[in-house]
Amino acid sequence: MAATTHGVHHHPAWFGVVMGTGAVSLVLASQSDAWSIPALEFAAGAVLIAASIAALLLWPRYLRRLTDRGALAEELADPAHGAMLATFPAGLLVLAVAWGRWAPH
């Protein structure tokens, strides 16, 4: 399969790092509001920046898949890889929500 020829570092689930880190940022921010602990707000911002950097580093791995439609179709059909491609748009949604929280009100 084309998906496995790239090795573990090209597995599509890597964007789950962005999803999880972005979610941690949202949790820290909401807990900062709930408990009035300003340090948690600072931590939320730092974690959000880390999630954004991870997204920028991982983005090319996902876009590169578009250059070979046959390999992409094969990867989508692979049960171990196909569903994990959804971590890309889901991670972007989590980042959008997290950055939206930081937007001026």
What are its keywords?
about 100 residues, mainly alpha, about 70% helix, elongated
* Count of helical stretches: 4
Number of strands: 0
Low-confidence stretches: 1-5
In round numbers, the mean pLDDT is: 89
Shape: elongated
Pattern of helices and strands: HHHH
What proportion of the residues form beta strands (DSSP E)? under 5%
Q: Helix amount, in percent?
A: 55-70%
Give the termini separation. 48 Å
State Rg: 16 Å
Oligomer: single chain
| Main sheet overview | none
Whole-number total of structural domains: 1
Secondary-structure class: mainly alpha
Summarize the structure.
The protein is 68% helix and 0% strand. It is built from four helices and no strands.
What does this entry look like structurally?
With 105 residues, the chain is mostly helical. The chain has one domain. Helix content is 68%, strand content 0%. It has four helices and no strands. It has helices spanning 16-35, 38-63, 69-77, 87-102. Helix 1 runs antiparallel to helix 2 (38-63). It is elongated and about 50 Å long. Mean pLDDT is 89; it is low at 1-5.
Please give the structural blueprint.
Layout: H1 16-35, H2 38-63, H3 69-77, H4 87-102
Helix pairs in contact: 1-2, 1-4, 2-4
